[in-house]
Amino acid sequence: MIQLDIERDCKPARHIELRRALVSILSPNGLCAKCREYVGIGKLEIDHVKGRTNWQPRELSKLQRIKRYWTEYLADVSLRALCRSCNGGHLNNSWRSRDERKSA
Predict the structure, then answer these.
(1) DSSP summary character for residue 100
(2) Residues 6 or more apart from 3 whose CB is under 8 A from it?
(3) In the chain, domain spans
């Protein structure tokens, strides 16, 4: 008999749903807030306009992180949606996929 762990199995889908909803608010047309290039909702990253508040994303799960972004958004912290290049991804290997790091 297969047992379903609701808490564990639902988190990935919930994280994606919450992230998409917030990015859609920040950039309904899928444009990067900095370079204005169209990259689509799924490829935009959430960025703090004035720098991140006192927390480290790597210390949180994906679900906890997106909930934190939502809390900040609802508290009027300035957030924007940026493409990977504008969000500093080209300067930081940790933001690149494994394939991107190998080809660099």
Answers:
(1) H
(2) none
(3) 17-103
